[in-house]
Write a structure and sequence with these properties.
MetI-like fold, transport, 264 residues, 10 helices, MetI-like_sf, mainly alpha, single chain
Length: 264
């Protein structure tokens, strides 16, 4: 049982925590203020880096005319489809290889060869194979997210305590029971780490995929803004990508805390 701190000590810890929280917010806000000031006095050229206020105005404009909501819907759907497809492939193959030495000898070498390929370098080949529609974009995302999930699932299952499987054998567990009651709970923490890595790769892949032969999505907004020299819209689009990555990562962290609350 953890020691109970006196009331004064708890208050001191809470105050330090608040100070650190405030400091984490002050530094980016100070950077934005310096950026705005530099733009206002002419130190930063608006043709190179528009002021934060102009970028905010561009965002309000995109929100007001509905372009941002349409782009978010299309980009979100692409990431979701790619993540589901890549997740099924990565977790499925990782589970098979983690549970079977024969599968490791036959499946793992081709997977490692594919992993060594830069998946974004396959864009021209994907366009030739699948055209310029939605399919190549979704498949690129799926390819990118599958490998972190595959590696983390494979590694997590191999690190399960063998004594747990021995106990399961003694108790007469079936393969399904061993997988659902031992392998999955033991591998869950590392698989969730792989999911966080995969989400970051998914958004990174989408940034590149949507700027090639796309007529919808956030990448299309950025490309269109480039043609009209709207640097403020380009930066706002990149900020949206970053925020989407942060939000989805936070969602997985909440899932991780709830799924693993028994460990605390």
């Amino acid at each position: 049982m953890a020691p109970v701190l006196p009331a004064g000590a708890r208050t001191s810890v809470a105050r330090r925590h608040r100070r650190w929280t405030i400091a984490r917010w002050v530094s980016p806000l100070a950077l934005l203020a310096l950026w705005q000031l530099g733009s206002a006095i002419g130190l930063i050229s608006q043709d190179v880096l528009p002021a934060p206020s102009l970028i905010a105005e561009a965002g309000v404009e995109l929100i007001g005319n509905g372009e941002l909501s349409d782009a978010l819907r299309v980009s979100g759907l692409r990431v979701t489809e790619g993540l589901l497809l890549g997740g099924v492939i990565g977790v499925g193959l990782g589970s098979v290889v983690g549970l079977s030495r024969w599968a490791e000898a036959t499946v793992d070498p081709p997977m490692q060869m594919l992993r060594a390929l830069p998946h974004l370098g396959l864009i021209p080949l994907f366009i030739l194979w699948f055209g310029i529609g939605e399919l190549p974009k979704v498949l690129l995302v799926a390819l990118g997210v599958s490998f972190p999930l595959y590696l983390n699932t494979f590694s997590a299952i191999r690190q399960v305590d063998p004594k747990l499987f021995e106990t399961a054998d003694v108790l007469g567990f079936s393969f399904r029971q061993r997988f659902s009651h031992i392998a999955i709970p033991s591998a869950a923490p590392q698989v969730l780490v792989g999911l966080r890595q995969s989400l970051a790769i998914a958004w990174l892949t989408l940034i590149v995929a949507e700027q090639i032969n796309a007529d919808k999505g956030i990448g299309f907004l950025i490309n269109n803004a480039r043609d009209f020299l709207r640097i403020d819209v380009i930066i706002f689009g990149l900020i949206v990508y970053a925020l989407l990555g942060i939000v989805t990562d936070a969602v997985v962290r909440v899932m991780e805390r709830r799924a693993l609350r028994y460990r605390s």
